[in-house]
Design a protein that fits this description.
Blueprint (H helix, E strand, L loop, with lengths): L1 H54 L4 H76 L4 H19 L4 H5 L12 E5 L2 H6 L12 H6 L1 H5 L34 H7 L15 E5 H6 L6 H7 L4 H14 L10 E3 L6 E6 L5 E9 L4 E8 L3 E13 L3 E7 L2 E5 L5 E4 L3 E5 L7 E12 L5 E6 L12 E7 L5 E8 L3 E15 L5 E7 L3 E5 L15 H6 L15 H7 L3 H33 L1
Parallel strand pairs: 1-17, 2-3
Antiparallel strand pairs: 4-5, 5-6, 6-7, 7-8, 7-9, 8-11, 9-10, 10-12, 11-12, 12-13, 13-14, 14-15, 15-16, 16-17, 16-18
Helix pairs in contact: 1-2, 2-3, 10-11, 13-14
Length: 595
């Protein structure tokens, strides 16, 4: 409390100094504007005088000198105006950045006060818990472990190095979900402790060590190593595609050709696309299918939920660099990925509706799970960014246990649509529900914020059972990795500044469930495709005539023949519109005959 009191005047002093500097700069701007007016006025008078003097009948030599003086005076006036304009631009820029600095300073101050309140409340709770343990008989060893954990939690906030400090982690509260903080406990203390405090959690810490074999093997080093011993690769897959050609894009020429046309009939060039269909992008969600293979081996439904949650997050890992748009599937277009012999699953997608676009997806795995989903894409253009909202539920069922999980995707936002470099962010919440056991996992995708101190693309969540009791804490980022920590104790903490009560979870050390595979070499020239994505459009024998691999425009684009791909793409789209008009006319005719 003393430190915060000392820093309060310093913060106010910095704020006052910033206001004073801004005020001084504003006064200087007024001085420069006054000087500008005076120079313009006096310069104009000087030039008029010189012009009048030049018109007088004077010797030729004097006239030339007066003309030279007039030219130099004009140059001086132009230079003075340029200097004043440059000073004004500099001051405007300084004023703009000063406002940003002021907002950043205020935000840092609020965050510091909030953190101090949280740490202070946590220290008080640990102290009261320590005194309670000391007063209870037979809890001396337990109090020792709790005391060391409390000291480590406070010292980690102060930056001191210790073993407890390195194991202590704090997770910021979720805005729309129950607020919580996690503190990593020392497993040794809990193993020795026989107190009621450690026994408050139904899942004993020893269970975590028994499950280590499943958790430790969940992180594979590469896509090619994710196959099991019983399923060996039968075919060598391609590892690269032709490099993306460097074609310039003239947006004005595209907009000019769109004047007076219906939006649904505007042909978009393949410059905005990547050589994959939306059906293939859906199939790409299975890149980390081994997470579901691991989940089959879990005996606990809450532990299995952790792997399902990690799988739901892993599907977004490829979007961090993939700003290009996949091809819109034609009505009736299909895509089959048969990897039963290699990876143990077979995936089948079909475009079942064109307006609105909708697809159906079914995956069967001989390793004990089935996944299916129906998805419709809704989008809204909001000026500077585009919001993409996938509609529809994803279902996952495990054959042996009968556990049936359901969840929905979050909103994807494409920024800098008009000006700047495109980048994608994921935001929102995913609620995964096990309809058999009623277990739930609430995941929050934190949206990017310029003033946030959180790591970008952060994902946090809690796995709880049917009674609402929390068992695991999920944490990580949707573009790198996900971890889970087993909860051994929970308690109610202080009330946050938003009026929500925080819950303090004491957890064991986190385990890595999923980690993103590194991109292949030269990925930046191959649309940032992953190892699996490079094989999705690889030609296959004995595929259906409606398979996405046989789309001529998509194949031409992959080969680098973009001009031909644009022509073919426009032909296919117009053909699909003609078929749709014919079907609508037939439907109207059939309806009239029925009447």
């Amino acid at each position: 409390a003393d430190d915060s009191g000392d820093e309060e005047p310093a913060s106010q002093s910095d704020k006052s100094e910033l206001h004073g500097t801004l005020k001084n700069l504003s006064s200087k701007l007024e001085d420069l504007s006054t000087c500008n007016d005076l120079i313009a006025k006096h310069g104009a008078a000087l030039q008029r005088s010189l012009s009048e003097l030049e018109n007088l009948k004077l010797p030729a030599e004097s006239g030339e000198k007066i003309k030279a003086v007039n030219e130099r005076a004009t140059l001086f006036r132009i230079t003075s105006n340029a200097m004043i304009n440059a000073c004004r631009d500099f001051l405007d820029l300084a004023e703009t950045h000063s406002r940003k600095w002021q907002r950043a300073l205020q935000y840092e101050r609020e965050q510091r006060i909030r953190l101090e309140e949280t740490i202070e409340q946590l220290a008080k709770q640990h102290n009261s818990l320590e005194r309670a343990c000391r007063g209870a008989p037979g809890l001396s060893s337990s109090s020792t472990g709790i005391t060391s954990t409390a000291k480590g939690s406070v010292q980690s906030a102060k930056g001191e190095a210790s073993d407890e400090d390195e194991e202590t982690e704090y997770f910021d509260a979720m805005e729309d979900a129950p607020a919580f903080i996690t503190v990593t406990a020392d497993p040794k203390h809990h193993r020795r402790s026989g107190s009621n405090v450690s026994g408050a959690s139904e899942g004993h810490p020893e269970d975590w060590n028994l499950e280590d074999s499943v958790f430790e093997s969940s992180n594979q080093s590469s896509y090619n190593e994710s196959t099991g011993k019983d399923l060996l690769p039968k075919k060598r897959r391609r590892t690269r595609i032709p490099d993306k050609p460097n074609y310039s894009l003239n947006l004005w020429s595209i907009m000019k050709n769109c004047i007076g046309k219906e939006l649904s009939k505007i042909p978009m060039p393949v410059n905005f696309n990547e050589p994959l269909s939306m059906l293939q992008r859906l199939t790409e969600d299975l890149e980390y299918h081994e997470l579901l293979d691991k989940a089959v081996k879990c005996e606990s439904s809450t532990e299995q939920m952790c792997f399902v949650a990690a799988f739901s997050v892993s599907s977004y890992s490829t979007t961090v660099h993939r700003t290009a748009k996949p091809f819109n599937p034609l009505l009736g277009e299909t895509y089959e990925l048969d990897r039963l012999e290699e990876l143990g699953f077979r995936s089948l997608c079909e475009q079942v509706s064109h307006h609105p676009p909708a697809a159906a997806h079914h995956v069967y795995s001989r390793r004990g799970w089935t996944l299916w989903q129906e998805i419709t894409i809704a989008s809204k253009f909001r000026g500077k960014y585009l919001s993409i909202m996938p509609l529809g539920a994803i279902h996952l069922e495990f054959h042996s246990s009968g556990n049936h999980y359901v969840w929905r995707k979050v909103t994807s936002t494409v920024h800098n649509i008009i000006v700047g470099k495109l980048w994608i962010d994921q935001s929102g919440e995913i609620e995964i529900v096990n309809h058999k056991s009623k277990d739930k996992c609430q995941l929050k995708f934190t949206p990017y914020s310029y003033f946030s101190r959180d790591i970008p693309r952060k994902v946090t969540g809690v796995v709880s059972d049917a009674d609402g009791k929390a068992h695991y804490v999920m944490s990580g980022t949707w573009d790198e990795k996900m971890e889970c920590s087993k909860i051994v104790q929970s308690s109610h903490g202080s009330t946050s500044t938003e009026g929500k009560q925080k819950t303090v979870y004491q957890t064991l050390s986190p385990k890595v469930l999923w980690k993103k595979y590194p991109l292949p070499e030269n990925a930046e020239n191959m649309y940032f495709f992953s190892d699996l994505a490079l094989t999705l459009n690889e030609p296959e024998e004995r595929v259906a005539p409606t398979d996405s691999r046989l789309r001529p425009d998509q194949r031409l684009m992959e080969s680098g023949r973009w001009d031909e791909a644009n022509v073919e793409k426009q032909r296919l789209e117009e053909k699909q519109r003609a078929v749709r008009r014919r079907r609508e006319a037939e439907a109207v005719e059939a309806l009239e005959e029925g009447e």
